[in-house]
């Protein structure tokens, strides 16, 4: 195993460690918060968490992709400092706009309107987390500090939750502790960056920050398109499927699939900077080939064990809908390769527009197909599952086709790629 590949495997391990820690801390606090906040208080907490998920998507934008690429391609510390400054300034600009939108939207939603202070404190926490220069560590292919930073910052806020939150009257402490966690994460990030890479922030002209915002927009647009068509599927199901039980089955199936897909993230997040830095297409190709039997067996097992999955997630009352999980299971196979070939191979090689095109094209196919079957009255859950699987298949095949020169190169193409 070469030292170059050791970096990749080390980052995968660190990323899986981060994934595990992100599962553990909510499991520690969730039972406690549901008990002390009571249904009324927990409803506020849960709703604002969901609301902030959308805000975080806008604040994050596409900086972790565009910023990672810029760091990986930087040749001096000064270039890295300017990249950190440009991304930070762009995020500050975006944070002001997003904050204003959050205020306006929250004003018209009853639960956030009556808890405006809580909502705005939660946004400050989200915005603080977004300012952390994760892209710097990704660009250097050294993601260990991201895991240790999260463990320390979230560990402090989790421990203090049990100290200061005892009833619904203490609910404001939750976002305040999240802000504290963000401050600790920011401090850890910049201290680690200075110690490991000698980097700091060099503030740049506004024009450079706006340029960074423009470059990042394409990455963000692609990611947002993916979120939109997933959300549209759920929205349409709620309109055309009148059986509430079916809606519950779909929701649980999506939850199960999302849980499996989250296991792809450490590999994708580690492969993207690896490819940006080295263009190691042969290594990427081997990863894709080695994963074929694993994905095939895993997808078949997921479908075969759908009864057990549904029993664990929903209980005995939902067992009759386990077939929805089985019908939707091919999404796991196609989405893995669509994700792996997307940003790590096409995006890293500069084909950002192509990644966006395949995402938008798949989203259009999904939306048009769903509207068509709804209009002609054949929008059953089986049909919706088929459309969802075909959507992922189209994205997967189209990306593999666009990346064929890197994945299945002729001798001349291989020579060009190596150059």
From TrEMBL:
<feature type="transmembrane region" description="Helical">
    <location>
        <begin position="324"/>
        <end position="343"/>
    </location>
</feature>
<dbReference type="InterPro" id="IPR050833">
    <property type="entry name" value="Poly_Biosynth_Transport"/>
</dbReference>
<feature type="transmembrane region" description="Helical">
    <location>
        <begin position="218"/>
        <end position="241"/>
    </location>
</feature>
<keyword id="KW-1133">Transmembrane helix</keyword>
<feature type="transmembrane region" description="Helical">
    <location>
        <begin position="174"/>
        <end position="197"/>
    </location>
</feature>
<keyword id="KW-0472">Membrane</keyword>
<feature type="transmembrane region" description="Helical">
    <location>
        <begin position="355"/>
        <end position="375"/>
    </location>
</feature>
<feature type="transmembrane region" description="Helical">
    <location>
        <begin position="247"/>
        <end position="267"/>
    </location>
</feature>
<keyword id="KW-0812">Transmembrane</keyword>
<feature type="transmembrane region" description="Helical">
    <location>
        <begin position="287"/>
        <end position="312"/>
    </location>
</feature>
<dbReference type="GO" id="GO:0005886">
    <property type="term" value="C:plasma membrane"/>
</dbReference>
<dbReference type="InterPro" id="IPR002797">
    <property type="entry name" value="Polysacc_synth"/>
</dbReference>
<feature type="transmembrane region" description="Helical">
    <location>
        <begin position="44"/>
        <end position="63"/>
    </location>
</feature>
<keyword id="KW-1003">Cell membrane</keyword>
<feature type="transmembrane region" description="Helical">
    <location>
        <begin position="92"/>
        <end position="110"/>
    </location>
</feature>
<protein>
    <submittedName>
        <fullName>O-antigen transporter</fullName>
    </submittedName>
</protein>
<feature type="transmembrane region" description="Helical">
    <location>
        <begin position="20"/>
        <end position="38"/>
    </location>
</feature>
<dbReference type="Pfam" id="PF01943">
    <property type="entry name" value="Polysacc_synt"/>
</dbReference>
């Amino acid at each position: 195993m070469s030292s170059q590949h050791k970096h990749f495997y080390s980052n995968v391990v660190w990323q899986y460690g981060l994934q595990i820690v992100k599962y553990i801390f909510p499991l520690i606090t969730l039972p406690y918060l549901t008990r002390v906040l009571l249904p009324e208080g927990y409803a506020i907490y849960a709703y604002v968490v969901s609301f902030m998920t959308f805000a975080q998507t806008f604040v994050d934008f596409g900086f972790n992709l565009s910023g990672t690429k810029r760091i990986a391609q930087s040749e001096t510390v000064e270039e890295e400092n300017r990249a950190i400054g440009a991304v930070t300034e762009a995020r500050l600009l975006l944070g002001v706009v997003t904050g204003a939108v959050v205020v306006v939207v929250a004003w018209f939603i009853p639960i956030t309107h009556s808890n405006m202070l809580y909502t705005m404190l939660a946004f400050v926490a989200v915005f603080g987390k977004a300012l952390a220069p994760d892209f710097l560590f990704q660009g250097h292919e050294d993601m260990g500090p991201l895991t240790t930073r999260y463990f320390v910052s979230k560990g402090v806020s989790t421990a203090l939750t049990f100290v200061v939150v005892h009833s619904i009257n203490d609910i404001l402490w939750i976002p305040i502790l999240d802000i504290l966690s963000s401050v600790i994460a920011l401090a850890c990030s910049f201290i680690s960056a200075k110690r490991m890479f000698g980097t700091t922030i060099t503030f740049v002209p506004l024009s450079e920050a706006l340029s960074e915002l423009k470059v990042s927009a394409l990455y963000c647009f692609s990611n947002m398109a993916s979120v939109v068509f997933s959300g549209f599927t759920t929205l349409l199901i709620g309109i055309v499927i009148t059986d509430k039980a079916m809606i519950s089955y779909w929701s649980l199936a999506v939850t199960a699939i999302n849980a499996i897909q989250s296991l792809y993230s450490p590999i994708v997040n580690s492969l993207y900077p690896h490819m940006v830095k080295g263009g190691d297409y042969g290594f990427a190709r081997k990863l894709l080939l080695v994963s074929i039997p694993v994905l095939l067996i895993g997808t078949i097992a997921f479908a075969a064990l759908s009864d057990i999955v549904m029993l664990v997630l929903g209980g005995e009352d939902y067992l009759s809908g386990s077939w929805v999980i089985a019908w939707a299971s091919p999404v796991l196979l196609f989405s893995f390769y669509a994700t792996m070939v997307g940003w790590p191979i096409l995006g890293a090689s500069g084909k950002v527009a192509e990644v966006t095109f395949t995402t938008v094209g798949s989203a259009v196919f999904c939306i048009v197909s769903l509207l068509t079957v709804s209009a002609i009255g054949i929008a059953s859950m089986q049909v919706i599952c088929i459309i969802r699987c075909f959507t992922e298949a189209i994205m997967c095949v189209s990306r593999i086709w666009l990346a064929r020169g890197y994945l299945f190169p002729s001798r001349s193409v291989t020579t060009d790629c190596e150059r």
